[in-house]
Amino acid sequence: MFKKLISEIDHFKSQTHNFRILIFTNLVYALVLPVIDIFVAAYIMRNSNDTSKVVIYQLAIYTGIPLTFLLNGFLLKHINIKKLYSIGMMLSGVSMIIMMSLKTLDLIGIGVAGITMGLSFGLYWSNRDYLALSITNDNNRNYYYGLETFIYTIIAIAIPAAIGLFIQSKIGEDEKHRAYEIITAVVFLITIIASMVCYRGKFINPIQKQYIFFKFHPLWYKLLSLAAFKGLAQGFLVTAPAMLIFKILGEEGALGKAQSIGAVLAAIIIYFIGRFSKPSDRIKTFSVGLILFALGASLNGFLFNKMGVIIFLLLLLIAKPLMDLAYFPIQLKVIDIVSRIEKRGEFAYILNHEAGLYLGRLLGAGTFLTLYFVVSEDIALRYAIGIIALLQLCSIYISKKIIKQGLELSPDEEIEAKVLEETAAGLL
């Protein structure tokens, strides 16, 4: 066991300097992601008891993200990518400060906090995606995302439980509000540390300066449709667990405990899949994740009780990393292919990809809000996730089409010839 651990450490050390720095940066920043994803939603629920405000906050975030992706393209012409990446991380702390300073959670205040968080995520994800693309290749991307997801999942074990217990240890609304303020201060400090780690990297800005195009290769349009289906769940899936737990399981203590169940097993599974799987395994990984998500969402809708929520969270802990582990390498491989064909910079595709995600997010959040206002809150919480999860199963078919066309267009004949053999053998 010890020798195996040493072997894995040596494998990590064999990666490039920038690979390791990006992983370390994301490791530090990962400490705040559960706070942003879960407890901001719980804070809104605690102070308003209105799930629609949580989804509106999420919509504000997702409106800010594509706008910032676009802005980032222009900023990269003049500002070092490390600065923009660092600013993006620190803005998440600023957004939480804005939220905590609101005396009443009205729609304007929630919108301002949400847009600010969207600016943060836009700068963070646009630059993170480009850096991940530039420092990896198709052979080590499974490992990169497997390792990154392993780190995120492990952190998701301790942080939600610790924060949930910390909040629950406080008595009275004033003390609980003070607990949220302390958490916000810690988040801001961690984002500063993550920025300091980022500055140790030797990251280079994209060379090509034109990022906006309106016509693309047919393969890219297939990926955009896949992005739209991915965005469907993102529309409110980030905050859905918090809403379900707050409504059905209880308060923040239960939230942290529920999020931690099964996370260790999920982290180990994801790491080894990323470490030892091949590019030809991505469809299988993607399919398993989508099916588990659909199963969990359907059971939640059927049961709609404490057991249903816990089963949904358990399956989601495994399903979401599996989907991401397969999706991101597929996305980056398509960018590799179409950028060479169309002779454009990679960031143009990262920017355009966000448009597909945004369309899906609007449809996903819109599904929830329509059910919420037209029918009822319980119906929205019970069925919206299931509807979206079942629709996402279409992604399996689309991803197979992408892989097939990508194999035909890939410039790397030696590697892809091997994948073609595996495909013919029935592995895809």
TrEMBL record:
One GO term in the molecular function aspect is: transmembrane transporter activity
Checking InterPro entries in the record gives: MFS (IPR011701), MFS_trans_sf (IPR036259)
Protein keywords: Membrane, Transmembrane, Transmembrane helix
Residues annotated as transmembrane: 21-44, 56-76, 83-101, 107-125, 145-167, 179-199, 219-246, 258-274, 286-304, 310-334, 355-374, 380-398
Question: Does the keyword Transport feature in the UniProt annotation?
Answer: no
What is this protein called in UniProt?
MFS transporter
